[in-house]
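Sequence design from tokenized structure. All designs in this work follow the same two-part layout: the structure record, then the generated sequence. An example of the structure record is given first.
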């Protein structure tokens, strides 16, 4: 960038040469006149310097664009899986693209948003050959606003946010950019039991209790289900039924370098939002989640446990098996070199733990990640999923993918 202050100074110095040259043909000015002229020119230089500094500050710090941040992340994959009947499924997918826009209104007020597109394209309806229309499934693409909130720092180390917010739970729900976790896909327990990506509309208070110990307290729209299906109960902030809200609280400890300990609890008095199939009975539910994430040099470890407990009397007999749902996983990893890491993950989860029949899923995964850049990664993994029901669910195979964030 052209330094205008130096240019102004050079111009001023050149202007001083005029009276010097003129002195060869004219009588020398008095000392008082010369001093006055120098004083005037110095004032002009100082004014120009102040103006340049103000403009440079406006470019680097101020202005609408200077306070607006852009970012995002994306994923694409190929998977080859044999299901329990021996049928092979090979699939390519431009999995997701998420764009971030934020704005810093002041030192205390900011805005953040995330817009997600999944599976490359979206259409609202599909026309059959007979002319009728049917709804398109989520797997055929959708657009969602994952975050949309204002945050206000109302006191030192304490803040409040309102709008569409990520629920403070688990390891991946808030930090799920593909370059931050191992495996082409997120850990299944954090998709099936902790229903990531899980966001709700509401208000959240966050801050530090002590050095290394923080809290989050959230009141928001709750899940909506009459069958106990947690994942399908997410309302996604679209005209969410507010008959019954959810309360979420988390404490997190990060006082030791490389260590994170988290504990989250949620309570909701009626997940049916007043529409329970069993008349006069609320589908009250509670969730507890706890996890550890630890990094020491090249070694990493993640472990998580989550559990749901619902009022089975509010569920029909066929759905009472979902009154209890739980899962856990453990994932050690090792950076072979700073840009290449390997991992192994063992997962168990059961969305129908209230059933006397074995409904416990298991998955074993091993894989490698190669970071082309700290925010750009190529991944590959092998998986074996044990299906307790023997239905046509994905079982053995491999996944290859790319991911990035910026």
């Amino acid at each position: 960038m052209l330094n205008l202050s130096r240019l102004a100074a050079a111009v001023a110095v050149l202007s001083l040469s005029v009276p010097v040259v003129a002195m060869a043909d004219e009588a020398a000015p008095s000392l008082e006149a010369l001093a006055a002229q120098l004083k005037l020119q110095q004032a002009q230089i100082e004014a120009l310097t102040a103006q340049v500094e103000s403009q440079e500050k406006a470019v680097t710090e101020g202005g609408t664009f200077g306070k607006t941040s852009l970012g995002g992340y994306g994923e694409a994959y190929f998977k080859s899986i044999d299901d329990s009947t021996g049928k092979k499924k090979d699939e390519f997918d431009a999995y997701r693209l998420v764009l971030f826009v934020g704005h810093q209104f002041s030192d205390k007020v900011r805005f953040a948003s995330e817009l997600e597109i999944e599976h490359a394209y979206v259409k609202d309806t599909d026309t059959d050959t007979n002319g009728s229309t049917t709804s398109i499934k989520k797997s055929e693409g959708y657009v969602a606003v994952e975050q949309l909130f204002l945050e206000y720092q109302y006191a030192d180390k304490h803040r409040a946010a309102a709008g569409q917010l990520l629920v403070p739970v688990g390891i991946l729900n808030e930090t799920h950019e593909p370059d931050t976790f191992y495996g082409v896909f997120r850990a299944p327990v954090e998709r099936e039991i902790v229903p990531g990506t899980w966001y709700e509309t509401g208000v959240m208070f966050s801050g530090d209790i002590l050095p290394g110990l923080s809290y989050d307290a959230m009141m928001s729209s709750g899940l909506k289900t009459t069958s106990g299906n947690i994942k399908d109960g997410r309302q996604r902030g679209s005209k969410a039924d507010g008959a019954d809200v959810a309360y979420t609280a988390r404490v997190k400890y990060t006082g030791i370098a490389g260590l994170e300990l988290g504990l989250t609890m949620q309570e909701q008095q009626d997940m049916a939002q007043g529409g329970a199939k069993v008349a006069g009975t609320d589908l009250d539910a509670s969730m507890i989640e706890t996890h550890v994430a630890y990094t020491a040099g090249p070694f990493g470890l993640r472990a998580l446990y989550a559990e749901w407990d619902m009022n089975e009397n509010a569920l029909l007999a066929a759905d009472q098996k979902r009154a209890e749902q739980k899962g856990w996983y453990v994932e050690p990893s090792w950076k072979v070199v700073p840009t290449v890491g390997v991992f192994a993950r063992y997962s168990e989860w059961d969305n129908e733990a209230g059933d006397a029949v074995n409904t416990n899923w298991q998955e074993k995964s091993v894989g490698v990640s190669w970071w082309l850049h700290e925010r750009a990664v190529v991944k590959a993994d092998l998986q074996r999923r044990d299906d307790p029901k023997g239905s046509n669910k994905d079982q053995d195979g491999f996944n290859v993918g790319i991911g990035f964030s910026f």
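The longest strand covers residues 88-104. We note this feature because it recurs in several other targets discussed in the main text.
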